[in-house]
Amino acid sequence: DQQVKQNSPSLSVQEGRISILNCDYTNSMFDYFLWYKKYPAEGPTFLISISSIKDKNEDGRFTVFLNKSAKHLSLHIVPSQPGDSAVYFCAASFQGGSEKLVFGKGMKLTVNP
Amino acid sequence: DVKVTQSSRYLVKRTGEKVFLECVQDMDHENMFWYRQDPGLGLRLIYFSYDVKMKEKGDIPEGYSVSREKKERFSLILESASTNQTSMYLCASSLGGRVSGQPQHFGDGTRLSIL
Asked: Strand B87-94 and strand B105-106: pairing?
């Protein structure tokens, strides 16, 4: 049973436009959500996170939005750059001090020059 | 910056061999993790350690064991390697202290092929 879902396997956008990556979850016991970026032949790197008590968190070109009622979050990248081309993973952690993360299957973003 | 180092980037082993994957972190983190990444399946947790000599099974522990004798080092052991264990293996660490939402810091992975 997949608790964190990234339903679109890939997305292609033009440089300078907005990239929107979506993630859905099923477990209301998640209290933090994180986004990771992964280049080929490298480990994932942490991008940005959001607490379940917030609905938005922004860091430079990256903004994460959380809609708890819909159990949905999205990562917005504005403006998109070719260097953003990578696989993006959505992850979630449980309430109560759990340090394990549950990952989605990932989404490949391609930003075309 | 946190540095998580995996001993090998590429490894080729034979079916039935005992395989050791090593991981070292340099930031005194309490937690360490082993994942495998397969196409279309994302990252799946194999084992987790929250302290020296402490371990907890993840989602797919069958065929694997782990060892954490020192805080900075976490080893993944394939007791008798099989071809379905061909995969990318990723080690990660996080600070600890039972605080949820902590980012995990990953090594660059070991691509293991079992022939």
From this structure: antiparallel
Convert the pLDDT of each residue in B94-104 to its tens digit: 988 777 778 99
Residue B108 CA to residue A90 CA, distance in Å, equals 18
Say if the Cβ atoms of B58 and A100 lie within 8 Å.
yes
**B54-85 exposure pattern, b = at least 16 Cβ within 10 A, e = fewer:** ebeebeebeebebbbeebbbbbbebeebeeeb
Note whether A100 contacts B: Cβ–Cβ < 8 A. Answer: yes
Q: Is A15 on the interface with B (CB under 8 A)?
A: no
- Residue pair B25/B3 in contact (Cβ under 8 Å)? The answer is yes
Exposure pattern of A60-74 as b/e (b: 16+ CB <10 Å)? eebbbbbeeeeeebb
Residues of chain B with pLDDT under 70: 1-2
Which residues, 6 or more positions from A48, have their beta carbon under 8 angstroms from its beta carbon?
A: A34, A35, A57, A59, A62, A63, A64, A75
- Taking 3-state DSSP, the helix, strand and coil percentages for chain A, each rounded to the nearest 5, stand at 5, 55, 40
Whole-number Å distance between alpha carbons of B112 and B95: 27
